[in-house]
Write a structure and sequence with these properties.
Order of helices and strands of chain A: HHEHEHEHEHHHHHHHHH
Helix content of chain A: 55-70%
Number of strands of chain A: 4
Strand content of chain B: 25-35%
Structural class of chain A: alpha/beta
Strand order of the largest sheet of chain A: 2-1-3-4
Distance between the termini of chain A: 25 Å
Shape of chain A: elongated
Structural class of chain B: alpha/beta
Number of strands of chain B: 10
Oligomer: heterodimer
Helix content of chain B: 25-40%
CATH superfamily of chain B: P-loop containing nucleotide triphosphate hydrolases
Number of helices of chain A: 14
Distance between the termini of chain B: 37 Å
CATH architecture of chain B: 3-Layer(aba) Sandwich
Largest sheet of chain A: 4 strands, mixed
Shape of chain B: globular
Radius of gyration of chain B: 18 Å
CATH class of chain B: Alpha Beta
Order of helices and strands of chain B: EEEHEEHEHHHEHEHEEHH
Number of helices of chain B: 9
């Protein structure tokens, strides 16, 4: 046991003697939180509209005013030429073309169906769907106004209708930052776990110091644990730093137990560090390691459900996520921070992480060869 | 003198179809300085790696400090010191930090490490270097220190793989003084070298060529046998018999 202490001390001296790494460890979380949290958003605002109003009646203008009045849309162009509008869409000057054919106002006045044509740029499918949904919402409101007007003028019977009152739980204002911040924290911890320890190990191989270690009676698991502990502590320090920034800069709510989050993150870090060191046993150079580790990290992060809902992934992807530690921590962090989940709510995720931590660390220790 | 600490019988080590060690047999006795000579690529480093438990033999019997080189590599490692041609102390640690680290790895007590550290710094006249980083030391000093660290835990055998490569003659001389001093403490020294004048200092030498041991005896007897005035001459006669 005393050996581990000597080895850990050596790692810490080396990390903090490296001027670049010792600063980067603290700079990275600050930069990442301040840039990514406000930048990564799916919220749609100010969708640029090009409008072809061939009707030019008070009805068509009423609709346009409603669109312009909503926060989602911004009427950027008005034209009578379809070609010009298409051109604008093509050059990314607008994201949607609304065509109001002549006779729109007349048809409505006559109690017939008014017709509209919306053309939406669907290069980004999800934002196209959102645009469509917002547009639908505005048109629905406009419809209701029409119906109300007709009711008061007495020419229609009141229509039975269902009114829905909705409440958004856990994130009432639908603040996207609240959703992304726990996820960005996961990415932060993942990067620390994946890159630093693995590179450190491969560097010892490159320099040759590992040979001097291998010729000593040091136990394999001592050496692996000594490589893990410093980066585990650094990861947790960065997590704390990230949380403080979240509180100070974004006033993020924290419903659950901070301690529980650190507990979950510790198990997660052991799993990721184990995997990183396992990969490092296969790599002879830092370049080889970076390539493989980066590849794994990107897959893990993108499949974790940080951007896309976990449940809407295909079944095979959900199965893959059984061995994806990032997916578990993503859920744990969001549930703790936004829902205030307790240990029993996230026990399945925690158990899974424990299994992965044991699995990956065991693999790393077994694959690490002192004698070839 | 016939207390065997290393015994090797029919050692073969193959890498794919390449035979690095071809049927080696030799013994090394306690307390002697055993010179392990051979041209570049003759297979010396392969043998040293096997003897120090870093590499498993393909076949043959190998016993180091009473332990088997197939199944007891970790016990071997407890009983040996090792210093390889590639300098292997941590360059970003200080002299003191390196000594404490290796002392700790070998399970030495805190007070013993402290004691050895002071002793070692005094012996090497290293006091002013105690808190200097290894990367700031000249190569000669680094190698002396690496050797001292390799015997810090008083092993039974110390393996030195070209310890004096790229070192000036004065430092080499001092280095060999420490080797003598170490051997006089009863530590067996197993050393490979390219410098034939150093071979003269060994109690016994073996000469390797193409993975085989072609000569093994005291320097004096080898010189007599090959009718040579120096080990260098012996070596050239053996390595290039046609010239």
């Amino acid at each position: 046991m005393r050996t581990i202490f000597y080895l850990i001390r050596k790692e810490f001296i080396q990390i903090f003697r490296n001027k670049f790494i010792s600063k980067a460890i603290f700079a990275v979380p600050i930069v990442q939180m301040l840039i990514l949290v406000p930048a990564v958003t799916f919220e749609l605002k100010n969708v640029k509209l090009a409008i072809i109003d061939k009707d030019m009646t008070s009805e068509s203008r009423g609709l346009i005013n409603m669109l312009a009045g909503s926060t989602f849309f911004k009427v950027s162009f008005s034209t009578f030429s379809e070609e010009e509008a298409n051109n604008l869409l093509h050059r990314n000057k607008c994201s949607m073309i609304l065509q109001i054919p002549s006779g729109f106002g007349k048809d409505i006045g006559n109690g017939k169906q008014g017709k509209l044509l919306a053309t939406i740029d669907a290069v980004n499918a999800s934002s196209a769907e959102l645009t469509w949904a917002y547009f639908n919402g505005v048109v629905r409101d406009y419809n209701m106004d029409l119906i109300k007007k007709n009711i008061t003028s007495g020419s229609f019977f009141p229509l039975p209708r269902i009114e829905i009152t909705n409440r958004y739980w856990y994130n009432e204002l639908l603040n996207y930052k609240y959703y992304m911040l726990p996820g960005i924290l996961v990415i932060l911890v993942t990067a620390i776990g994946f890159l630093l320890a693995g590179l450190n190990m491969v560097r010892e191989k490159e320099i040759g110091t590992i040979e001097q270690i291998n010729v000593t009676p040091v136990r394999k698991y001592h050496f692996i644990i000594a490589k893990m502990v410093p980066f585990l502590l650094i990861g947790l320090t960065d997590l704390a730093l990230g949380l403080v920034i979240g509180k100070v800069a974004f006033n993020i709510p924290f419903e659950g137990s901070v301690l529980l989050m650190f507990f979950g993150s510790s198990i997660f870090l052991i799993a990721v560090l184990g995997l990183a060191l396992f990969i490092s046993t296969y790599s002879g150079t830092q370049q080889q390691y970076m390539f493989v580790a980066f590849f794994c990290m990107i897959i893990f992060i993108l499949m974790s459900g940080i951007f896309t809902p976990y449940e809407s992934m295909p079944m095979w992807a959900q199965d893959f996520n059984l061995i994806n530690p990032v997916a578990y921590l993503m859920r744990i962090n969001r549930m703790i921070m936004l829902k205030g989940s307790t240990i029993s709510d996230i026990s399945r995720e925690l158990y899974s992480l424990v299994v992965l931590a044991i699995l990956f660390t065991t693999l790393a220790v077994r694959r690490y060869r002192k004698t070839v | 003198m016939n207390n065997t600490v290393i015994s090797v019988h029919n050692l073969v080590k193959k890498f794919g179809s390449f035979t690095a060690n071809d049927n080696l047999s030799f013994e090394v006795y306690a307390g002697e300085i055993f010179g392990f000579l051979g041209a570049n690529g003759a297979g010396k480093t392969t043998t040293i790696r096997i003897l120090s438990g870093l590499s498993i033999p393909t076949s043959g019997e190998v016993n180091v400090a009473g332990f088997d080189a197939y199944s007891q590599t970790e016990q071997i490692k407890k009983n040996i010191g090792y210093m390889c041609q590639k300098f292997s102390l941590y360059e970003d640690l200080t002299v003191k930090e390196n000594i404490i680290l290796y002392g700790g790895i070998y399970g030495m007590s805190k007070s013993l490490i402290r004691e050895r550290l002071i002793e070692l710094l005094a012996k090497l006249r290293f006091q002013e270097y105690e808190n200097r980083m290894i990367s700031d030391l000249p190569p000669g000093l680094r190698q002396k220190l690496a050797f001292s660290v390799a015997v810090l835990h008083e092993p039974k055998i110390v393996f030195l793989d070209e310890p004096t490569g790229g070192v000036d003659p004065i430092t080499r001389r001092q280095f060999w003084e420490s080797i003598y001093e170490t051997a006089s403490r009863g530590i067996t020294v197993f050393v490979t070298t390219h410098y034939m004048d150093e071979a003269e200092y060994c109690d016994r030498i073996s000469i390797m060529n193409d993975g085989k041991i072609v000569a093994l005896d005291t320097p004096e007897r080898l010189k007599k046998q090959y009718n040579a005035t120096s080990v260098e001459e012996v070596f050239i006669k053996i390595a290039r018999p046609d010239t």
